[in-house]
Amino acid sequence: xxxxxxxxxxxxxxxxxxxxxxxxxxxxxxxxxxxxxxxxxxxxxxxxxxxxxxxxxxxxxxxxxxxxxxxxxxxxxxxxxxxxxxxxxxxxxxxxxxxxxxxxxxxxxxxxxxxxxxxxxxxxxxxxxxxxxxxxxxxxxxxxxxxxxxxxxxxxxxxxxxxxxxxxxxxxxxxxxxxxxxxxxxxxxxxxxxxxxxxxxxxxxxxxxxxxxxxxxxxxxxxxxxxxxxxxxxxxxxxxxxxxxxxxxxxxxxxxxxxxxxxxxxxxxxxxxxxxxxxxxxxxxxxxxxxxxxxxxxxxxxxxxxxxxxxxxxxxxxxxxxxxxxxxxxxxxxxxxxxxxxxxxxxxxxxxxxxxxxxxxxxxxxxxxxxxxxxxxxxxxxxxxxxxxxxxxxxxxxxxxxxxxxxxxxxxxxx
Length: 415
Ligand SMILES: *[C@@H]1O[C@H](CO)[C@@H](O)[C@H](O)[C@H]1NC(C)=O
Ligand SMILES: *[C@@H]1O[C@H](CO)[C@@H](O)[C@H](O)[C@H]1NC(C)=O
Ligand SMILES: *[C@@H]1O[C@H](CO)[C@@H](O)[C@H](O)[C@H]1NC(C)=O
Fold this sequence. Notes:
- The chain is globular, with a radius of gyration of 24 Å.
- It has helices at about 1-35, 45-55, 65-70, 75-85, 85-95, 100-105, 145-155, 190-195, 200-210, 225-235, 255-265, 270-275, 320-330, 340-350, 385-400; strands at about 115, 135-140, 160-165, 175-185, 210-215, 245-250, 250-255, 280-285, 310-320, 355, 360, 380-385.
- With about 425 residues, the protein is α/β, with parallel strands linked by helices.
- It folds into two domains: about 1-105, no CATH class; about 115-400, Spore Coat Polysaccharide Biosynthesis Protein SpsA, Chain A (Alpha-Beta Complex), CATH 3.90.550.
- Strands 1, 2, 3, 4, 5, 6, 8, 9 and 10 form a nine-stranded mixed β-sheet that branches.
- Helix 7 (about 145-155) packs parallel to helix 15 and helix 10 packs across helix 13.
- One 2-acetamido-2-deoxy-beta-D-glucopyranose binds near residues 168 and 264.
């Protein structure tokens, strides 16, 4: 009996130790993952800056703040000034590499004039204004990528009515949706480029009505600005559009599959609720910033610490029009971050939602099954295709349409 009692005691002690261990581990994990931990512990510039601004938006700390101020960016800028006035903030800024210094000194400015935009409507393809568009293709391009834009218009990016697969539908019911298209551009410096292509772009815009250009420098670190300005433009100019495809001008999209996939989402129960948070793509979870200084994604730990939030790769991602509007509002409370898809992940965390992973979005590296004859019939989107490849692939898709008719979309766990 005494022996039994003793063993029982040991078990309790054991369980207690295990519990304490679990608590400590959880605590460590939480301080690592939450990207706005405690102010005293946060040394990295972006984390600290965001934290200072977060406190201004805290309704408990500031109960009397007006709704108007709450919905504007002014509190964010107040946080910025407060932080940069701090001794800590100054020395932190001085410790940054030049690239980050450039970024930080411009990160307060978000308002850039539009140079070219579609004529009063939300992108090309708005001929049938009565029908609610299913999808707006918003493609990040740059001034000189004329060939990419041309290839996209001819192939997967055609605007207007696009048919989906109707194989599952009864009575010959046609499935499809109206698609609109817009290219998102910044500005190259004419001095650096040696020519000014603005007139060419104006002509292109007249011809196709799908150019949206802002007057900011089109650099990698300014891509976040492109997102934020696009959300703003969308919220002000576009009517109810159900989905947005945001992608690079070097992706290849299986438009027919995408339209079918999106229509299927609308058939699901409770769509009006799920659409509010809908975002799907190739999801990266628990990623740490790249610390190699020669990488284009380099983020020093003096700038950002901790894991990135879950985010969908920016090469190609689809989200709802409702979410676009919510992102537009939320972005006013989150300081710009140099990497656009990570930034979107940060706004998503603040919206208390996260992206859905779909294996048919192939945004990284080459795929081993690419040689398989029906590979492109099984995907939604694949990254890194040249304009010539897009045109060839499109022709190939047409050619293999019959033999690949019944292949399913790629699913989790399949090669
Ligand atoms: C908030 O407003 C109320 C009256 O409108 C005032 O009595 C109170 O002192 C204010 N609180 C703060 C923290 O400013
Ligand atoms: C289409 O048919 C396949 C196979 O019968 C089925 O698995 C799939 O769920 C169907 N899709 C829709 C949208 O009905
Ligand atoms: C972003 O664009 C602005 C306006 O053209 C420019 O001043 C700034 O240097 C750019 N930022 C980066 C990080 O390239």
